[in-house]
Amino acid sequence: MADPLTIVVVEEDRERAIGIVDALHASGSYEVHVLGNVSSVARKIAALAPDVVLIDIDNPTRDMLEELTLASGPMERPVAMFVSGAAGDLAKSAIEAGLSAYVVDGMQPDRLKPVLDAAIARFEMVRQMRRELAETKRALEERKVIDRAKGLLMKARGVEEEEAYALLRKAAMDQGRRVAEVAEALVTASGLLS
Amino acid sequence: MKTVTLPVGYMPLVDAAPLIIAHEMGLGRAEGIELDLIPAPSWSSVRDMLAFGRVDAAHLLSPLPVAMALGLGGVTQPISAVSVLSVNGNVIGVGRALEDRLRAAGYGFDFRDPYTAATALAAVADRPLVFGVPFPFSMHVELLHHWRRATALSGIEMEVRTIPPPLMAQALAQGDVDAFCVGEPWGSASVESQAGALLLPGSAIWAFSPEKVLAVRTEWAETEPHLLGKLMRAVWRAGRWLSAPESRTAAAEILARDTYLDLPSELIDRALSGRLTISGHAEQREVPGFLEFHNGAAGFPWRSQAKWIAERLAARNGLDPKVAAGAAAQVFRSDIYRSHLAGTRADLPGASEKVEGAIRQATPVASQTGGLSLLPDMFFDGHVFDPDRVLRTKN
User: Fold this and answer.
1) Which of B167, B227, B314, B337 is the Cys-Cys partner for B324 at CB 3.0 to 4.6 Å?
2) Are residues B219 and B329 in the same domain?
3) Which of B13, B43, B44 to mutate to test the interface with A (most CBs of A within 10 A)?
4) Where residue B103 sits, what CATH number does that domain have?
5) pLDDT at residue A166 above 50?
């Protein structure tokens, strides 16, 4: 039986990190380390000498890890990103899920697969949640702007709320724009005029 | 005409301008393509998006596809650099601590002479100097090493470390790095945020260094030659538009938008105009040719440029220089550039290689229409790179 794989997860958000660690432990027996502090990430990873490094694709500190792909000393192991053919498909699905994985050169694909399957599933879930959150935030922002625009119209034209909204909607339809965009324009313009 | 949408990856930098302008000025649409510009948080991301097919073309650091061809770094997908997007545009700077010591020692911050800058820096360094760069395979790294080799810096210990430019100010403040080499707007941004002062423009080290390239998967270049031609022509026209002085203000305004760099247009204008503010003391320096998109056949991917990069990478990573030069020459596609720009007004050089560093003043060269002048491409120390001495290749 081979030694358990050592995995480093680079993740600043504590909750997310715990989620990834749990998902990994559920899929097998691994030694998992989490690096939260972004500065000197590369040096800390080099010290841990892991078999696999998992990091969010949107993390700008990823470029710091590229240095690890150059073995500069006898004690350091060259790190590759998805080198073997078997890992090729895995690489694609990982990237679609927003995950990038650095793997020590020469590692067996059958040992890698369960790690990545677990991580990919977790990353996909988080990505979905993030998208929903962004969408909700945007909807809230837009509603706020539309409410402000309605208020401005009600005051300026002396109309009721319903009619104010109808005016906004009509302007939007006439111009082929979204109601939120028209509202935004109105709020900005009135800010300039007042 | 049916419009095809092309996903293109880029890093939000001033030198992504040819792609942004090709899109915003409708130059892509005129060719029947719509550029879907996708910003990336890191160079690794741009590379992976390109290698794994998320985008069809990308704005890449010129040494990156060469490194990939040499098997350096994790990803080895064959990539073709079909044109040079920008020449020059980097700055070398120091953090506040070094700036103060340099001033106390009487250094004048002339922003011009690499020798005096190196001598002054070596004299005030009391420990190994750590330089932050955006990526291990970048012109930034090559310029720093070249600068060091020929100056007083060779006498002190120096380390080059990767720091994403948005984190450079923080790394300077925490003492993780002492100095940096970055592309604009990050140099000017560091001056604005009082994090540091600028020492030299990249062009003071090498007067005509290929900085970013337009990169595609080699397999895609072969299966989609028509789309590639449309993209290359649109980008070439964008470069020509950018090189006109009257375009500068509009270009800065477009790049400044929150979809792109999301910075004040004045900060972006510094790189486009070559008039840089180099310190918190509002010192101004003018640098002709600070960033070039078009003139002097800037877009032409010289195979000799790729070989120069390969020779440097090979030397540092213990690879065979001849094998490396041969592999690199296949990456910079002067052949594709010639065939796809043949129908435009681009004046194409007759040769695919030149002796790098040998042009001391604007020099007319053999070209298709005979009106082409190459611009000075000297290294500050008189270094000359003859690609034929590494390996003789045809084409």
Assistant:
1) B314
2) yes
3) B44
4) 3.40.190.10
5) yes
Give chain A's mean pLDDT.
Answer: 80
Exposed, middle or buried, A11 (CB in 10 Å: 0-12/13-18/19+)?
Answer: buried
Search chain A and give the residue with CA nearest B45. A57
Please report, as a single letter, which amino acid is at residue A194. S
* B51 → chain A, closest CA residue: A92
Round to whole Å and give the CA distance between B130 and A82: 31
In order of their start, the domains of chain A are 6-132 (3.40.190), 134-193 (1.10.10.10)
Mean pLDDT, residues B358-379 taken together: 88
Beta-carbon separation of B73 and A83 below 8 A: no
pLDDT at A76 exceeding the cut of 70: no
Q: Which residues of A touch B166 (CB under 8 A)?
A: 60
Distance CA B83, CA B68 (A): 17
**pLDDT 10s digits, B126-153:** 889 999 999 999 999 999 999 999 999 9
Cross-chain Cβ contact B167/A81 below 8 Å? no
Q: Do A64 and B170 lie within an 8 Å CB cutoff?
A: no
Task: Read off the pTM.
Answer: 0.84
Both tokens assigned to A56: 């969010």
Q: What is the least distance, in Å, from the CA of B331 to any CA of chain A? A: 20
Put simply, the answer to whether B74 touches A62 (Cβ < 8 Å) is: no
* β-bridge pairing B275-277 and A31-35: unpaired
